[in-house]
Amino acid sequence: MRHPSWGRYPIAEDQRVTPVFWSHQLPDLTGEGGPFLPRGLGRSYGDSCLNPRGTLLDLTPLDRLLDFDPLTGLLRCEAGVSLDTLIRVFVPRGFFLPTTPGTRFVTVGGAIANDVHGKNHHQAGTFGAQVRRLELVRSDGSRIVCSREQHPDLFRATIGGLGLTGIITWAEFPLVPIDSHGIESESIKTRDLEEFFDLSEASEADWPFIVSWVDVTASGRGLGRGLFNRGRFASREWAERLPADRRLQPPKEPGLSVPFDLPGFLLNPFTIRWFNRLYYAKQLRDRVHAVGHFGPFFYPLDAIRDWNRGYGRRGFLQWQCLVPWAQARPGIRGILEEVAASGLGSPVSVMKTCGSMTPEGPLSFMQGRGVTLAMDFPMSGQDVLDLCNRLDARVRDVGGTVYPAKDARMSPASFRAFFPRLEEFLRHKDPALSSGFWRRVMP
Ligand SMILES: Cc1cc2nc3c(=O)[nH]c(=O)nc-3n(C[C@H](O)[C@H](O)[C@H](O)COP(=O)(O)OP(=O)(O)OC[C@H]3O[C@@H](n4cnc5c(N)ncnc54)[C@H](O)[C@@H]3O)c2cc1C
Questions:
Q1: 49 CA to middle of ligand 1, Å?
Q2: Does ligand 1 come within 6 angstroms of the Cβ of 57?
Q3: Do 65-178 and 182-409 come out as alike in CATH topology?
Q4: pTM of full prediction above 0.90
């Protein structure tokens, strides 16, 4: 399968791929081969980066750095540049990303089109919130530079716009100065959901980076138990203890890889339950303090190349929701109870509180203060799809959202309920662009 999505479900039939090397050499988007869809590094899990019976425009060759001001940190780069490249080029020069998702193998264009968030959402907002300007090429041939001042409605629709408002050719956003690659972190064992909420509220002011791993197989009194992680860049004093030429190192390349699809039966409800128990138990102390490289802290999964093959040939689904703050305690509790009762587990589940910023775009997933929970379910069949539908219904009931970047199966009715500003987006959608996701939710 060429150009699958990260979850490798669903499979896109008859998908053509055209690489784009120069932004002024885009194919005629109204011509043969349509509909078209821009594509980054394919780290979206479901079908928002797939285009069955259409053409993917592979934009990863658009990978040039165009301008950088070391005084302000303002960077302009082409949209196919990966965050990994930015880290390798700029960390040794004392700059880091203003925000980053849990993998660095995504492109700038992909990060804007899904308006991705990171561990610092409660303080910094989304990736789209950092973007000052971008250039968009539309299927009518127009080339539009947009920002919050120029074409502001088109700019906002493009942030979180799922690649459907035009091709982003370049973007401008600031990098932030850092003294070193060091991160001071604490991992704190939480016994239940209440402890997660209490710690989140107590940590948000002083810790810019927060995320929790949750054991979603636990029930009863242990419901919502996990490991609460908080971090911040290490102090200048810590940095000064390192030799000057060793303070700003990029992360190590992935050392391990999964070279082939593992048999699907390895990840079953029984092994997943035990994996969760052992992972929770592996931290013996209530609180572990450490200072180390930011790589394992921000990007633990990047240590193993192609880890998605571990889910076997049928792939997996990720389901991620945002529950608004007013409903967060009962809402998240209900979701965890539903998952625990299903007996289907998720080996990797993360939860965090999100900031109260106004959403950047009408289709941005981050829609204000709330709690987000993400879970990975091996694709074992209808039981998983039924569970996700039940979880969607719970999120609809509390006025929350499910993340399109992770979705492979939400219904058209759910999509409309999750994104009440859809009509605002539709005014800017480019008619020549579409995706598997779009045709499913807007049949
Ligand atoms: C291990 C892992 C951890 C992750 N952690 C997080 C996280 O913490 N937070 C989070 O928000 N997400 C997270 N994600 C999801 C990931 O950040 C997003 O799916 C991201 O958008 C992927 O970028 P990409 O370059 O791979 O784009 P793709 O997946 O290839 O495409 C994503 C979307 O961007 C559009 N697009 C790509 N390039 C352009 C362009 N030049 N112009 C216009 N549209 C374009 C595509 O059409 C598509 O709609 C994670 C994914 C993985 C695999």
A1: 8
A2: no
A3: no
A4: yes
Interval between CA 79 and ligand 1 midpoint (Å): 12
65-178: CATH number: 3.30.465.10
Beta bridge partners of 147: 133
Right CATH for 182-409 from 3.40.50.880, 3.10.450.50, 3.30.70.2520, 3.40.190.10: 3.30.70.2520
Q: Is 111 in the pocket of ligand 1 (CB under 6 A)?
A: yes
How many Å lie between the centroid of ligand 1 and the Cα of residue 414? Answer: 21
37 touches ligand 1 (CB under 6 Å) = yes
What whole-number distance in Å separates Cα of residue 255 and Cα of residue 32? 42
Local mean pLDDT, 10-residue blocks, the chain (443 residues): 90 95 96 96 98 98 98 98 98 98 98 98 98 98 98 98 98 98 98 98 98 97 98 95 95 92 90 96 97 97 95 96 98 98 95 97 98 97 97 98 98 98 98 98 98
**By the 8 A CB rule, do 262 and 312 touch?**
yes
Tell me how far apart the alpha carbons of residues 214 and 21 are, in angstroms, rounded to a whole number: 42
Atom 2, ligand 1: which residue's CA is nearest? Answer: 103
Here the tokens at position 307 are 């880890």
Domain parsing of the chain, residue ranges: 65-178, 182-409
The residue behind tokens 């950088």 is: 68
Locate 277 and state its tokens: 């128990």
Residue linked to tokens 């303090």:
289
> Could you tell me if 242 and 179 are in contact, meaning their C-beta atoms sit under 8 angstroms apart?
no
Q: Whose CA is nearest to atom 36 of ligand 1?
A: 110
